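Quick one, tokens below:
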């Protein structure tokens, strides 16, 4: 799907002020309410916008340690059974299948380094996980972001 400058402005507005209504967004963007609604519907339908929920900071909930855990798994049943079991662990925030020497990468949170050991033990107990390796994030100088990518997309799709 291609997006244009109005889409970029709409996404940027929603990212900055997620609680802005359709009518207020149309006023700020200088377009009709129906245009804003149609653009939103199109971007949701095409999977560009995947949610409107609040962003949560795990540290504010007491999960001050973030770690990245790589897994080596038994390949007999594939990734899906392991992914399903990992999803049952609340502290596992993301799971990716990856290339290289390991098979999966998980972003996990814990309340402390000692609690991280508990979370890793839960991961190791998952059927199909053979080995893990972890690194603890000390800081996040560039947090997860997509707005620079969104803003740059029309430039690459205009040709």
């Amino acid at each position: 799907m291609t997006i244009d400058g109005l889409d970029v402005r709409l996404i940027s507005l929603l990212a900055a002020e997620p609680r802005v209504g359709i009518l207020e967004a149309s006023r700020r963007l200088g377009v009709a309410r129906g245009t804003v609604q149609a653009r939103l519907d199109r971007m949701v339908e095409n999977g560009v916008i995947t949610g409107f929920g609040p962003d949560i900071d795990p540290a504010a909930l007491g999960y001050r340690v973030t770690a990245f855990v790589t897994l080596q798994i038994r390949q007999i049943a594939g990734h899906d059974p392991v992914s399903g079991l990992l999803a049952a662990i609340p502290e596992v925030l993301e799971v990716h299948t990856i290339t290289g020497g390991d098979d999966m990468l998980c972003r996990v949170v814990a309340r402390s380094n000692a609690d991280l050991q508990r979370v890793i033990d839960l991961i190791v107990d998952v059927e199909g996980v053979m080995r893990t390796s972890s690194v603890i994030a000390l800081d996040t100088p560039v947090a997860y972001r997509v707005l620079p990518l969104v803003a740059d997309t029309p430039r690459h799709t205009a040709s």
